[in-house]
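BUG-429 | component: ligand-complex export | severity: low

The export step for adenosine-5'-diphosphate jobs runs without errors, but we want the raw record kept on the ticket for reference. Input record follows.
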Amino acid sequence: MKKKAIVFVIVLTSVSLVGIVFTQLFWVKKSLDLKSEQFDNSVRIAIKSVLNQFMDMKNDSVFQQKLLLISCRKPKLDVTDVIPPRLLDSLLTEEFICMGLGGSYYYGLYDRSIGRFVAGRYPDNEQQLLESPYQFSVASLFRPGDYYLSIFFSGKSGLVLRQMEGWLLLSVFFLIILIISFIWVAYTIFRQKRLSEMKTDFINNLTHEFKTPIATSSLAAEMLLRPEISDEKDKVKKYAGVILDENLRLQNHVEQVLQVALLEKGQQQYKFRRANIHQLVSSAIDSFSLIIKEKNVDISISLDADRYIAVADRAHILNVFHNLIDNAIKYSHGRPVIQISTWNTKNHIVIRVSDKGIGISPQHQKDIFKNLFRVPMGNIHDARGFGLGLYYVKTVVNHHNGRIEVKSELGKGSSFDIYLPFNEEKLKV
Ligand code: ADP
């Protein structure tokens, strides 16, 4: 898939996801409003029922008799004679339970003419009661006066939310799964795309690296086949040498690719023996003697480690040093300036290969150890390679329980430190 198409699909899906989230929020809000309205209606029905029961009681002849007796004792009936607080309390509780309105509530009988509560249960909640939306006139039960029954539910929003809790949690859960899956799919698509680009680059490089030696050795073979050449021993020797060199180059490439293929499968064999790390560093440097001369490399070596014997696989560690020195030369402009040094820490011998080459930007430093990764070239450098070297280095160093650290600044140079433990315990296994 083209990058533009992928970006388009991902943007479209992101917009749809945001749309779904907002639609969901809208419906949740609507449901909450509906539930809140339902709650209000239930409160109204419960209060109406309580007031009706008081009305029935007021019309009852026995109660009227009782009121008559009370009115004989005092000059004027109170609202609490018609609506006894205890009865009001128990009727309200009964009705609220019956309507499924759990949670704590306060209520009070308020006399608007004097601006005061005259009965009820409202510890320090007078203000809330006054602002409550549930205010009911009791004028039909008691006159004169301007009395109101006012109720306040302290946990109304909690109650409404609790009623929808299950559905809310379920939709949040599904939304989270949807968002995580989407992020994962988008990430995987981009990773696969990058991997496929890296593989294409690798194949292109491989083809190029194979084509040049094949073409050169074919040409040399053609020259050898010319009849007039057979008498010129020097030329025969020269062309045979070219074929041999190119063959060795091909062999090296094949070896490199095969080695990494084995690493990938975890089938690389390691032979751990005591090794003189200084000797291995020197051997690696020696193998570059021709290139060092050819490119006039400024190389300085200070092997200062006192403990330089470590248990290691000699062939692999030699390859590791070889790869680092090769990169140091390859990624330098003009005359390469290279420093190789060693020293000890408590448990390691540290080998540093540093150069004053093109350097690596911080954004790419974490990727250079990945298989097939090459810093995108632009026009920074034209060095050929497969992106296998540092991956191999890191895998081998990890197998030796060591670590590799890179310090680099773009345009100023790079420095690779290998921390190799002495690994004596590997011999005991
Ligand atoms: P290759 O050199 O074959 O491309 P490597 O795995 O050895 O593969 O290196 C990966 C990338 O890291 C290289 O493509 C290069 O961009 C960068 N790199 C490695 N060593 C150096 C160095 N000494 N200086 C600058 N860049 C480097």
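Assignee comment: Attached the raw record above. The CA atoms of residues 297 and 336 lie 5 Å apart.
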